[in-house]
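Components:
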Amino acid sequence: MSQFLPEFLQAYVPNTIQIFYLIATAFFILGIKRLISPATARSGNQLASFGMLLGVVVTLFDREIVSFEFIIAGVVLGALIGAVAAKKVQMTAMPEMVAIFNGFGGGASALVAWGEFSRLDSGLFESYALVTIGLSILIGSITFTGSFIAFGKLKGFINGGRIALPGQNLINLFLTIVALFLIGWFTVDPEYQIVFWSLFGLALLIGVFTVLPIGGADMPVVISLLNSYSGIAASMAGFVVGNNLLIISGALVGAAGLILTNIMCQAMNRKLLDVLFAAFGGEGVSTAGLDDDDKTVQKTFADDVAIQCSYAKKVVIVPGYGLAVAQAQHALKEVAGLLEGKGVEIKYGIHPVAGRMPGHMNVLLAEADVPYDQLYDMDEINPQFASTDVVLIIGANDVVNPAAQNSPGSPIYGMPILNVHEAKRTIVFKRSLSYGYAGIDNALFYSDTNQMFFGDAKKSLQELTGAIKDLN
Amino acid sequence: MEDLIFNLFIFVLASFVGFELISKVPPTLHTPLMSGANAISGITIIGALIIAGGSESVYAQWIGFTAIVFATINVVGGFMVTDRMLEMFKKKEDKE
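Structure:
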């Protein structure tokens, strides 16, 4: 667009663009910084999106941009698809949505590298530029196909279990080495088209092969990791086109993804390498401790739960993904509201992996109008269980399993859990005594202080609502 | 080559800033954080604009066009869905 400017201004355009890029970077950093508190988070996101708009608009003044047909058509089409998807998506489907957006981002970075390579004479590139083109295509393509496989697994289009060829890990390792070798070859001999295309195809294949074997339960880790990849891919694309804004923003996102991946792994008691190279512990789990003869559970019903909760001073609610599956968030909010009306103190204790991605449960509860100051993270709520009268555990299982603390042989041993067993009374809302993701029994269910309220979470909560109302 | 070294400096320093920033975000906001960060990674749209708007070859322009579509889905969808989520986070007083 610079051709529309008066001539005496033209000389300033390149530097002005860079300065605006710097401002956009500042917006990104300040935007993320404002995500520290729910009170400022929304403005932070708006700040970041404004930074993006700024970056896009000033880029249009770049002298290299001379035609706008493709740009306008592409932006309109992309914005339309993105906006509709963002408006329509259900909050429970957020992990799929993030995965697919991520895939598009990674794919775009790979395309940018391809486009840059194909529009300029390959003799013009220095060898380090060719390396970054190769890396950009490799990482971007892995992100692209990997994200789509993750999307398919989360949606249930693809079997959520482990799908793998024999020796899959070795195959993946071999393919990755071949891909790196191809990048080297491409750097030396960029004119040789077949190397470029083999690299592209191989990268797409690696994305499929690395995500396909990973079980559904580990998908939150995979999504975080792919998020990181898409950032690194954008950064690499920045190296390719020589743009600092891309390098910086991509690095920020890459770091964010890595931290979240690490947090998810810790919360699930999984090592990243195990997630990537092995099946979830569910298969070979020992059945030790399943001598179920002497184990009895106490059953309870809505009327009884209503009385216990109404006369309690403090009730902590522990929601799990089962709550969201049953779409029972609103019913839960109603129960909580009634109890609050009776002067009961209500808090929500939320495990980091409740839901299907980090922080997912908080979003689902926020959607049901639960105020965020009632939502407590694991570290905040754990010291409070000893002074809690009743804990309502709804659709959660492994994250309240005391085996994580007291049985060293258990596959979840060492996983941080919510210490609900310290409370005076726990009531588990569950369909049956079936196992959670980890595929193990839960001693909490058989504890003297625990009662089971069997049934669909939504129906049980609705019964409970009625029972509390009847008490008046 | 100097370009590469300079860019590497920026890359490494920005990664450190990222680590510092993100590690302070509370678990409550991790989902919006992830989708917001995801939207920022759509910054690659800027590279796509330069390729689609260039005059060298129509072939490259088509690649750029596809890249723009992909990146715009990422940017617009990502920021909008994050906004939708964050809009729902409200304090107790705000509700009544």
